Amino acid sequence: MEQILKIDKIEKYYGSRSSLTKAIDHLSFEVEKKEFVAIMGASGSGKTTLLNCISTIDKVTSGHIYVAGTDITKLRGSLLNRFRREELGFIFQDFNLLDTLTAYENIALALSIQNVNVNEIDRRIKKVAEELDIKSILNKYPYQMSGGQKQRVASARAIITNPKLILADEPTGALDSKSSRMLLERIGYLNEVMEATILMVTHDAFTASYASRVIFIKDGKIFNEIRKGDHSRKEFFDQIIDVVTLLGGDLNDAL
Fold first, then answer.
1. What pTM, to 2 d.p., does this model score?
2. At what angle do helices 147-159 and 177-192 cross, to 10 degrees?
3. For the chain, first and last CA: distance in Å?
4. What is the pLDDT of residues 128-147, one digit of tens each?
């Protein structure tokens, strides 16, 4: 299986020499192509810092992060911008759609930046819109959409460039339970049918149960890891709850 992401002994410190905080502590793991991996942990566990380092929003203090064989910790300037633009897709909790653009234009923006021709942009958008069931809202602006519709548009924008890796940051955090379930089914579709590789950070066990593997982080280290395998989603959810209970701390931060 092709390796898409490799986290190799990374550490991340914040603060000054007199007051250092270690957010990530010698962390290593790998994600293979077409995997759907969830990262769970209580507030302050390091999961968001990890996602920020992978997305190149933040830099590691030591260690290396490889995406499709490229050491992204060494990228700078235009090479780093190109990597973000072409190799990563992002699904944010607050959608990050541009209010002055329609759904179609929001999705098209990433392709326009890559100088993809108009006909190809139109073909790709129509294809992904059909797959994510958003054809009827392509000409609507964000203020005219429900939360679930906005999130599906954001998902279309994330997948439209065929990125090596999609990073999802608490994707259901701003949605009601019905919209959350619909979005998670669509993310599952991206993974299973469109063969997208997904790394999702979440504090919610129900959301994590849609993944094929869950990595639990505590104090910047891997605490445990479980795989869905042949279990049903309900059985996997129960396994996740068992680990969360072992994880301890404030359960409201992890459930």
1. 0.88
2. 20
3. 32
4. 998 888 999 999 999 999 98
